[in-house]
Amino acid sequence: MARKEFPGDPRLPTAIVAYTPASSSADGGIYYMTAFASSMGALFVKAKWIGWVAVFASMLSIFNDRISASSSGGSRLSTITLALTALMMTYTPELISVYNRTKGN
Predict the structure, then answer these.
(1) How distant, in Å, are the alpha carbons of 25, 46, 53, 84, 100 from that of 93?
(2) How far is the CA of 59 from the CAs of 21, 83, 99, in angstroms?
(3) CA 86/CA 83 separation, integer angstroms
(4) Does residue 85 carry a pLDDT above 60?
(5) Does the residue 48 lie in any domain?
(6) Which residues of 1-21 are buried (b: 16+ CB within 10 A; e: fewer)?
(7) Residue 12 — φ and ψ, nearest 5°?
(8) Is residue 21 part of a domain?
(9) Domains in the chain: how many in total?
(10) Which domain of life is it from (predicted)?
């Protein structure tokens, strides 16, 4: 049995959508600024919930950052490092008091 060729192109010319690259707007910039500001707030005010907001915002800024936005991962690493340091500094007094109670002072 001979193979029958398809009569034409099945794609509709009206259904073809041209490719447009994504805009270069800085959507991740708001998360970066929120992470930085809340990290500083957690360090100055010693509020744990602000530290957790900083960690969450830094994760969002890392995941929303484009690879081509920065050649090195320095800003991404510094954002999460600052947020985790702020969170650690807010929990340090509690850890010291628990250590002193277990030691017997």
Answers:
(1) 41, 10, 20, 16, 11
(2) 25, 9, 30
(3) 5
(4) yes
(5) yes
(6) eeeeeeeeeeeeeeeeeeeee
(7) -85, 135
(8) no
(9) 1
(10) Eukaryota
Task: Find out whether 55 and 83 touch, Cβ atoms under 8 Å.
Answer: yes
CA nearest neighbour of 36 among 15, 28, 2: 28
pLDDT class of 17 with cuts at 50, 70, 90:
confident
Give the range of the structural domain holding residue 73, as residue numbers without chain letter.
28-103
The C-alpha atoms of residue 41 and residue 53 are separated, in whole angstroms, by: 10
Q: Within a domain: residue 5?
A: no
Q: Residue range 67-84: average pLDDT?
A: 73
Q: Is residue 10 part of a domain?
A: no
pTM check: above 0.70: no
Task: Give yes or no for residue 20 having a pLDDT over 90.
Answer: no
Q: Does the pLDDT value for residue 97 go beyond 70?
A: yes
